[in-house]
User: Which sequence fits this backbone?
């Protein structure tokens, strides 16, 4: 059993909070004053602590540096209208972390360890939660194997950490995406559904080729036929075609996005027609050509709701109408923001007060 009340706290003597400029927050560059750490040694999580954010010393033979035995999560903390710090569906992140952990032979992180570490860290660094619209404190929990061993096997020892960084938008303007039909992100039986570091590493080369062609991101298709839409590099994707909200079902190859689930839940509660079923690339392309693709957008924690401006497929480019307040993507983002700030009642128990 873990006694999470034993979190040791070592406060920094030199806060860097004056480096935070709420009007100009680049994504992932500035980290808050503290970080949470727990070590898995001899089969149990121990030495729970919050310490000043700092570099770590690791062995050059640390297994994760060689074999990517690492998983992560992404969630956000916000200030509500009353100035309190809240987080959005953190229990869902705790549970998804353990789905990833199982696939990567990483020990389970008890929900209480995840939630207590998160809560204590956010209490201590509450001043780092920005309050301007569109900003948040991004929270990055992660686990990695720490064995000093370069043989290929699961690690015996692990570290679970939480770091946080104030963020603005991940995408500062509507994105240009390319439907990828040569490279693959995931296959059935692989690790696509896990939030595993290696999945992201493997996506970088195809993404770079697309960036050289002027795109911001890829839309991945299934690894076998490349006929079906899967997800984008940093977010799940949704399409509004003929008034129906369409997205691929989550599966062994698609990440179970928490923002994805929240958007689908709201859409259904609003009485919209929602179809969580395979989406053919050819359907999206035909709808774009015929003006029936009313909206396309990415959904993710970091990306929030990211309108897609242009879709590239083979040699063609399809420009989509600019999203205005009448678009579902705008309305649902407003609703999510209102739930977090408390302007709209949190009927689904999504908001967690720190
Ligand atoms: C998130 O949205 O939190 C993610 O983990 C995506 C990340 C790769 C930026």
Assistant:
């Amino acid at each position: 059993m873990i006694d999470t009340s034993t979190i040791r706290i070592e406060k920094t003597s030199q806060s860097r909070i004056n480096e935070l400029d709420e009007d100009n927050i680049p994504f992932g560059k500035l980290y808050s004053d503290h970080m949470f750490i727990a070590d898995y040694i001899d089969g149990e999580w121990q030495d729970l602590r919050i310490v000043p954010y700092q570099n770590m010393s690791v062995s050059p033979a640390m297994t994760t540096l060689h074999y990517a035995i690492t998983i992560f999560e992404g969630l956000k903390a916000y200030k509500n209208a009353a100035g309190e710090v809240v987080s959005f569906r953190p229990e869902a992140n705790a549970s998804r972390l353990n789905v990833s952990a199982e696939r990567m032979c990483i020990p389970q992180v008890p929900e209480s360890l995840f939630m207590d570490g998160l809560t204590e860290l956010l209490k201590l660094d509450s001043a780092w939660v920005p309050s301007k619209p569109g900003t948040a404190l991004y929270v990055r929990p992660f686990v990695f194997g720490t064995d000093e061993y370069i043989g290929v096997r699961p690690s015996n020892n692990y570290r679970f950490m939480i770091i946080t960084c104030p963020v603005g938008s991940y995408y500062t303007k509507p994105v240009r995406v390319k439907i990828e039909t040569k490279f693959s992100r995931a296959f059935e039986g692989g690790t696509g559904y896990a939030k595993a570091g290696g999945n992201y590493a493997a996506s970088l080369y195809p993404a770079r080729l697309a960036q050289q062609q002027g795109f911001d991101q890829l839309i991945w298709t299934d690894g076998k036929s490349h006929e079906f839409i899967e997800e984008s590099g940093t977010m799940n994707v949704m399409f509004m075609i003929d008034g129906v909200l369409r997205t691929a079902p989550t599966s062994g190859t698609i990440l179970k996005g928490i923002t994805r689930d929240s958007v689908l839940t709201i859409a259904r509660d609003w009485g919209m027609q929602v179809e969580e079923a395979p989406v053919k690339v050819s359907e999206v392309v035909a709808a774009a050509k015929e003006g029936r693709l009313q909206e396309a957008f990415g959904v993710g924690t970091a990306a929030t709701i990211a309108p897609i401006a242009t879709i590239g497929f083979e040699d063609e480019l399809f420009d989509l109408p600019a999203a205005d307040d009448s678009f579902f993507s705008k309305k649902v983002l407003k609703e999510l923001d209102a739930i977090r700030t408390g302007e709209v009642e949190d009927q689904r128990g999504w908001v967690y007060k720190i």
Q: What stands out?
A: Residues 74, 200, 234, 300-303 surround 2-OXO-4-methylpentanoic acid (CB under 6 Å). The mean pLDDT is 96. Residues 175-341 form a domain with the D-amino Acid Aminotransferase; Chain A, domain 2 fold (CATH 3.20.10.10).
